[in-house]
Design brief:
There is one protein chain. By secondary structure, the chain is mainly α. Helix content is 44%, strand content 0%. It contains three helices and no strands. It has helices spanning 14-23, 29-38, 42-60. The longest helix has 19 residues, at 42-60. It is elongated.
């Protein structure tokens, strides 16, 4: 069973969050968390909180051991676009 965490309606461009996600994609869980803590980009703190949520979901809901967890996938998608109107 896989444990997931999802964040919706984030007000950061997905391109900026993907830069951070690509830097931790093939790392172990401990190394990924340490890279997220040291990265100065705004998307790093968001991904750090999502990772902690996924770890909590795996430990509490799926009864997994924290040491045996692995990152299976990181996906960053576009959110809804803000529609703007300019009166002419």
């Amino acid at each position: 069973m896989t444990a997931t965490a999802k964040l919706s309606y984030l007000n950061i461009a997905p391109r900026k969050v993907r830069l951070v996600a690509d830097s931790i994609r093939n790392l172990s869980l401990e190394k990924a968390l340490s890279v997220l803590n040291m990265t100065q980009k705004r998307g790093a703190s968001v991904l750090n909180s999502v990772f902690k949520s996924a770890i909590g979901n795996a430990v509490n809901n799926a009864k997994k051991n924290k040491d045996s967890l692995k990152i299976k996938a990181i996906e960053v998608w576009d959110g809804p676009a803000i529609k703007r109107f300019h009166a002419s």
